[in-house]
Amino acid sequence: EHVLVTGATGYIGAHIVDILLRRGLRVRGTARSQHKVDEMLRARPQYAERLDFVLVKDLTEPGGFDDAVKGVDAIIHTASPVTLSEDLDREKDLILPAIRGTEAVLLAAKSEPRVQRLIYTSSFAALINASLLANPPAGLTFTAADWNPITYEEGLTGPAISAYRVGKKEAELRAWHCVREEKPQFDLVTICPPLVFGPVVHPVARTAELNHSVTDLWRIACGAYPYPPIRTVIWADVRDVAVAHVEALLRPEVSNMRFTLASPEGFTNQLIADIMREEFDWAKQAVVEGTPGAPVPEWPRADGWTASEKLGFTYHTLRECIVDSIRQFKEIEQRE
Ligand code: NDP
Known about the structure:
Blueprint: E1 2-6, H1 11-22, E2 26-31, H2 34-42, E3 51-55, E4 74-77, H3 90-111, E5 117-121, E6 141-142, H4 152-157, H5 160-182, E7 187-192, E8 195-197, H6 215-221, E9 235-237, H7 238-250, E10 258-260, H8 269-279, H9 281-286, E11 301-302, H10 305-311, H11 318-335
Parallel strand pairs: 1-2, 1-4, 2-3, 4-5, 5-7, 6-11, 7-10, 8-9
Bound molecules: NADPH dihydro-nicotinamide-adenine-dinucleotide phosphate.
Residues 7, 9-13, 31-33, 36, 59, 78-82, 97, 121, 123, 168, 193, 195-196, 211, 213 line the site of NADPH dihydro-nicotinamide-adenine-dinucleotide phosphate.
Family: Belongs to the NAD(P)-dependent epimerase/dehydratase family. Dihydroflavonol-4-reductase subfamily.
Pfam family, one: Epimerase
Domain NAD-dependent epimerase/dehydratase: 3-205
């Protein structure tokens, strides 16, 4: 089987590429930078015969994936802007690349009769109801049945996170609409990860290049205090997120399902700091102590069990995730 992975030089995409390769599949990645493609290939000489790349520089270009999709049996679509910088143009930089990128992938998938399944990397952004978060009802649990009630207008006028949420939601809706209304030859599985932590396997030369969702881990390791503000206690390890994508691709019985991912453990930045200080000698100095052992607050939880059961994987613990991440980020810093 030959699998197309969009965003293959990104944080989650590169982990997916590696699992597919380890399982013996052929992989074509899309990327927007030849430099990152060269780095990806250089780090994987053993897979030279089963890994190649196509440059798709602009997600919003109609027909952008038409060449990339030729001859593949399945697509995992991860490419989308993941940045929450407030000076971005909400529509041009965040919303439209998410939506148009997914539309271009859908169009390409319809044009290649070999494609049997599309996996779309959605997000909690597509299902969370932010208005419940300020004062969550007791026992609130987010599941794959939930959809974010946010409107397009709120995405245009709100903070960058709102635009990100609108982009992810609208893109996922486009994918479901296509599969339900147009009944193409492929089916769909969508995966909604929460905040993702864990080590990197994509090209990262300097800690300043770390992807958005792990930067706060590194800031805590570097002594940030008060700890960076948190908006959630729900997280998942990137290795579990990637396995979920690959299992979603390979298991016929999960056809047209939507999954939420969530580690059974809640996290706080205090808990992350505690783990760093317990596990690394250097961190006893570098990481601010705060209030060790402070409990994880009551906060909505999420259904991570359905994915774990139907896709057959076990979540990494927070301790494993933080230790593996921080050990690696420290090595990257030492090479800078
Ligand atoms: P990254 O930023 O590491 O990866 C994003 C990928 O999309 C990269 O390959 C990037 O290319 C590509 N990309 C981004 N913007 C554009 C653009 N405008 N045009 C072309 N390509 C673009 O982030 P993640 O790996 O974390 O994100 C992957 C997916 O997972 C996204 O769809 C995101 O919404 C979703 N997700 C992530 C979560 C997280 O906490 N990390 C949580 C939930 C969902 P390049 O490699 O050149 O930078």
